[in-house]
Design goal:
The structure is a single chain. This protein is of the alpha/beta class. It has 6 helices and 6 strands, in the order E-H-E-E-H-E-H-H-E-H-E-H. It has a 6-stranded mixed beta sheet with strand order 2-3-1-4-5-6, with helices on both faces. A hairpin with a 6-residue loop joins strand 2 and strand 3.
Length: 206
């Protein structure tokens, strides 16, 4: 019987202001569905998606956390950030303020989770006529922060797969793989197939 494959787990946090489309992006990537009706996320929620490690071909489970964008819920964040492997920053290209708040979200993640990979998503590219944040401005911010930038439409499923696959690949490169557990120095492996000879002791009657 073949041994079961070991599965890697990646926890990815999706951050951004309320209404930028974090939940829609997550639902589109995981379930290929989009709902026009807006419902604010309360606290945090997560979905999982199974992918394959492009290097080892081992199975990987992505745990995507959609945290609430409202300021009154930000204090709930510490428990949800714990153990995060990467971050997806999201803004709405039609709302300038959501772009202006990116630095605060990035700093919040760094405080809670430490130095981890990021990608930046400008969502709602299907609303080009209402754009307030130019591609040039967003790309310049991303370049300054050394992060990759993607424009997406959760509604049209444009650019979503590539953005999430990129952050998953980045997180996998940063995280030690299961089989790469460090060995303890100075210890030699024990060959259990060799039997230790019985010790002779004339004083023992047994």
């Amino acid at each position: 019987m073949a041994a079961a494959q070991k599965k890697q787990l990646l926890k990815i946090i999706i951050l951004g202001d309320s209404g930028v489309g974090k939940t829609s992006l997550m639902n589109q990537y995981v379930a290929k569905k989009f709902d026009n009706r807006y419902k604010a996320t309360i606290g945090a929620d997560f979905l999982t998606k199974d992918i394959t490690d492009p290097v080892t071909s081992d199975p990987v489970t992505l745990q995507l956390w959609d945290t609430a964008g409202q300021e009154r819920f930000q204090s709930l964040g510490s428990a949800f950030y714990r153990g995060a492997d990467a971050c997806v920053l999201v803004f709405d290209i039609t709302v300038q303020d959501t772009f202006a708040h990116l630095t605060s979200w990035m700093e919040e993640f760094a405080i809670q989770a430490g130095k981890k990979p990021y990608v930046l998503i400008g969502n709602k590219s299907d609303l080009e006529s209402k754009r307030q944040v130019t591609q040039k401005t967003a790309k310049q911010w991303a370049s300054n922060e050394n992060v990759s930038y993607f424009e997406t439409s959760a509604k049209d499923n444009s650019g979503v797969e590539l953005a999430f696959q990129t952050i998953a690949d980045m997180a996998l490169k940063q995280k030690p793989r299961i089989e790469e557990a460090p060995s303890l120095p100075g210890l030699k492996p024990i060959d259990m197939s060799k039997k230790k000879p019985a010790k002779q002791d004339d004083k023992c009657p047994c």
